């Protein structure tokens, strides 16, 4: 059994969560609501991810990783490459940077095209099933939407949800993923059905999830406190996901505390002074690339 987190640990984790407090600029929100979700989905995705909800999108995509680990054939492949178990931080940085390049510059920009070409080149090395590609793509669509609706300072409007969907649909096409549903609801139904059919317990699930948990905790805590911090991450995961990862359910009080902390963070974020510039993850300092990076450096050597 994992040790229960102390009240001090919960307070520390709440402070960490609140470290992402940035009030979305109302001008960005006004622009979002005036744009067309089909014609302007690249601009709307940029505004959602970097201006209106930068903290929420980043955290939701981090937790979306755990959902892919709940599928044994995906986690087994990830473990076999050694990228997640031996070079965890570099793998995180590479994935984050490639996705951020596409979001920040657009999939049709030179940098966006180069990022997608890099991803396609890496994936071509492995026998990955189309339905697994579809599922991973669906997590990019629906996990940020669900997180924002649950914890954001406001829920996404229908036009924003559709723009987010159209953006990742276009990225998926450029990754040569087949049979991507054209309908938002149909793709979400696929996401739910896939998880029901494919989430199964396996040792590889445990291995890659543990490495990723420790990586995320390492952003904020010394290694000696990881055992206390892990339950805080696990409390944000739902029961079917925990079961597939071999993690026991977390105490109700812990789940409630973190849910309330995230909701308070969202409300406080809405009351803070306006943030004047987009939060560009490609500009963040990366231990994997202390002097900067080029697109062709991202990914396994």
Percent range for helical residues?
55-70%
H/E order of the elements?
HHHHHHHHHHHHHHH
Main β-sheet: number of strands, strand sense, barrel status?
Answer: none
Q: In DSSP terms, counting alpha (H) and pi (I) runs of 4 or more, how many helices?
A: 15
Overall pLDDT level:
88
Structural class: mainly alpha
**Oligomer class:** single chain
Into which percentage range does the β-strand content fall? under 5%
Q: How many structural domains are formed by the residues?
A: 1
Care to count the β-strands? 0
Describe the structure.
By secondary structure, this protein is mostly helical. The protein has one domain (7-282). It has 15 helices and no strands. It has helices spanning 7-18, 26-34, 41-52, 54-69, 72-81, 83-86, 88-105, 110-123, 130-151, 158-174, 184-198, 203-218, 226-234, 239-245, 252-271. Helix 5 crosses helix 12 (203-218).
Blueprint of the fold:
Layout (H helix, E strand, L loop, with lengths): L6 H12 L7 H9 L6 H12 L1 H16 L2 H10 L1 H4 L1 H18 L4 H14 L6 H22 L6 H17 L9 H15 L4 H16 L7 H9 L4 H7 L6 H20 L30
Helix pairs in contact: 1-15, 2-3, 3-4, 3-10, 4-9, 4-12, 5-12, 7-8, 9-10, 9-11, 12-13
InterPro entries: MPAB
GO molecular function, one term: oxidoreductase activity
